[in-house]
Write a structure and sequence with these properties.
The protein has helices at residues 27-33, 37-45, 85-95, 125-128, 144-156, 168-171, 176-182, 206-212, 235-256, 266-273, 275-283, 293-296, 343-349, 364-367, 371-382, 387-396, 407-412, 414-418, 459-466, 471-480, 486-494, and strands spanning 11-13, 49-50, 56-57, 76-80, 99-104, 135-138, 159-162, 187-192, 261-265, 318-322, 333-337, 401-403, 422-425, 433-436, 447-449. With 495 residues, the protein is of the alpha/beta class. The strands form 5 sheets. The chain has a 6-stranded parallel β-sheet with strand order 6-5-4-7-8-9, sandwiched between helices. It has a 3-stranded antiparallel β-sheet with strand order 10-11-12, covered by helices on one side. Strands 1-15 form a two-stranded parallel ribbon. Helix 3 packs across helix 9, helix 8 packs across helix 10 and helix 9 (235-256) crosses helix 10. The protein is elongated, with a radius of gyration of 27 Å. Mean pLDDT is 90; it is low at 1-44. The chain binds coenzyme A. Residues 83-86, 103-105, 139-142, 163-165, 168, 171-172, 191-193, 203-205, 235 line the site of coenzyme A.
């Protein structure tokens, strides 16, 4: 085995860095080149590997792991996103090294800057936790000079990401045809509520998507109403899907040299995450869903997938059980899975060794109609332990289980801090805050987790360094009202 320095997950929190320089339309090339220019040059002479398509790959970098640049170095993103779904996508790409330039309406910005505000005068956590590691430029996209600036940005970027209401991007004049004419390599990525069909023109927010994508109808208890989940599977879930689509399109562009449209509908994203329920819908045609506790309770099934409470979604029955202290702590619970291979260990630990051989309990099928009683008995045991004590005992026996962790507990969990999943960053107006870093760990690409930008913080920088406007042109742009708030526009007009 080669004695290579062991791959480590590295985190860089809240350190500013100059975005990677690039020239228009060459981002992916430069991304591949970026890690070690000198190595890449050697590679050109002596290629060491070929892809399935016969393309040559550079020789492996000799840089230490985690120091050969970031995965998306050299990719520049024109970020037209707002609220949650789009921003989660571009934030993830920024964490992976893309230079994300967020375009915001002068004076207003992303509406979430002011929503659910907890610190007077400072950007909300809603905004700051979804827009880290980005740059912000203000441009009035409906102002003639603003349109000119945007066209220049289109030429300098690799991907445009947006999640406006249907038609809004076209109304700005940024049709795919227009964009493609300016920059044939541009990838145009969109989140919409629905794909083509009867609802394609609808505006959509998180819970609408959860309801329309099959999550709400299958979440909650059988005798209660549909429920939405706390995990933002409609917004953040679709942002994740879109990020994957963008990376795939960038990869394809390496071969084809041209960009394409990437569309993720929130309904589709939620349905994808709820695919096991569509599985169950089809199983219903062949009989009862025996792993649902409804089966054990003798309640007949209808013709659609019912809500299953805390039943496990897979073939191993599970339930949420009370632990010591549940009377005063709403999160003193544990998820307990009666996985078949460890049934003997479960019987021993809960003090029911006779269940190992009792024909009513010894096999998974025999247990199915008795799950309520079984979980009730296990709960008598879990109630004598805290969730962490139970976890400790059960884990040693290989019994799958998980404590119900509160947000407070997660915020203080040291292992999440150590891996960079929870990161503290500093902010000039609100001070330090916690954010969720990159949940995707790459061993050779350091996560780039920085604070969110102030509104328009990088306007001058982007105009000068990315778009190459001269100082006097920047002054003229400022006077035009294309990048300033309405009151400043009025002043500019009066001057
Ligand atoms: N300069 C000038 N105008 C700007 C601008 C800028 N920099 N940025 C945005 N605008 C304008 C848009 O052009 C649009 O104007 P138009 O309607 O006259 O064409 C307007 O701002 C509002 O955009 P819109 O997307 O319609 O915002 P909204 O607040 O009315 O709706 C959503 C919000 C989220 C419901 C809607 O954007 C949507 O359905 N998006 C797709 C699904 C989605 O992502 N939902 C999840 C959100 S978390």
């Amino acid at each position: 085995m080669a004695t290579r320095k062991k791959a480590k997950f590295k985190l860089r929190a809240n350190k500013s860095r100059a975005p990677a320089k690039k020239s228009a339309g060459k981002a992916v090339k430069s991304a591949a080149r970026k890690p070690a220019m000198s190595t890449a040059k050697v590679a050109a002479k002596k290629p060491s590997a070929k892809t399935a398509n016969g393309n040559t790959l550079p020789r492996p970098s000799s840089m230490p792991w985690g120091e050969a640049g970031r995965a998306l170095d050299g990719v520049r993103i024109l970020d037209f996103t707002h609220v949650q779904s789009g921003p989660t996508c571009t934030q993830l790409l920024a964490f992976m090294g893309a230079d994300v330039i967020k375009v915001e309406r002068p004076g207003v910005g992303d509406i979430t800057r002011g929503q659910l505000r907890d610190v007077k005068g400072a950007d909300s956590l809603y905004f700051t936790m979804l827009n880290g590691s980005k740059r912000s430029i203000t441009i009035d996209s409906k102002h003639p000079k603003g349109k000119e600036i945007l066209d220049r940005l289109v030429k300098e970027c690799d991907v445009l990401v947006e999640n406006f209401a249907p038609g809004a991007l076209d109304r700005m004049g940024l049709t795919f045809e227009h964009i493609h004419k300016l920059n044939p390599r541009m990838i145009v990525a969109s989140v919409k509520g629905f794909g083509p069909g009867p609802y394609e023109d609808c505006k959509v927010y998180e819970n609408v998507a959860q309801c329309a994508g099959g999550s709400a109808s299958t979440t909650g208890f059988r005798d209660g109403p549909p429920l939405v989940t706390g995990a933002q599977i409609g917004d953040s879930g679709t942002g994740l899907h879109l990020a994957l689509g963008i990376v795939a399109a960038l990869y394809q562009r390496n071969r084809t040299g041209r960009g394409q449209k990437v569309l993720c509908a929130m309904q589709d994203g939620v349905l994808n995450l709820a695919r096991v329920k569509l599985r169950d819908q089809q199983r219903l045609a062949h009989g009862a869903l025996t792993e649902y506790s409804q089966y054990g309770e003798g309640v007949p099934f209808g013709d659609t997938v019912p809500r299953a409470g805390n039943d496990s979604g897979g073939g191993q029955p599970g339930w949420i059980l009370k632990c010591k202290g549940y009377e005063s702590d709403p999160d003193a619970y544990i998820y307990f899975i009666t996985q078949a291979p460890v049934w003997g260990a479960i019987c021993d630990v809960i003090g029911k060794p006779e269940w190992k051989t009792d024909p009513d309990y010894a096999t998974p099928n025999a247990r199915l109609p008795r799950l309520k009683h079984i979980f009730g008995t296990i709960e008598q045991w879990t109630m004598t332990k805290t969730k962490f004590e139970a976890m400790d005992i059960l884990n040693k026996l290989d019994i799958p289980c998980g404590p119900i962790l509160s947000m407070k507990e997660l915020a203080h969990e040291q292992s999440l801090r150590a891996t960079g999943t929870v990161v503290e960053v500093d902010h000039p107006t609100r001070g330090p805050y916690l954010t969720v870093g990159n949940p995707i760990k790459l061993s050779d690409s350091i996560a780039d987790v920085r604070r969110s930008p102030l509104l328009g913080e990088h306007t001058d920088e982007v105009l000068r360094d990315v778009l190459k406007y001269a100082d006097r042109e920047i002054e003229a742009i400022k006077g035009s009202g294309a990048i300033s708030a309405p009151e400043k526009k009025a002043e500019a007009a009066a001057a």
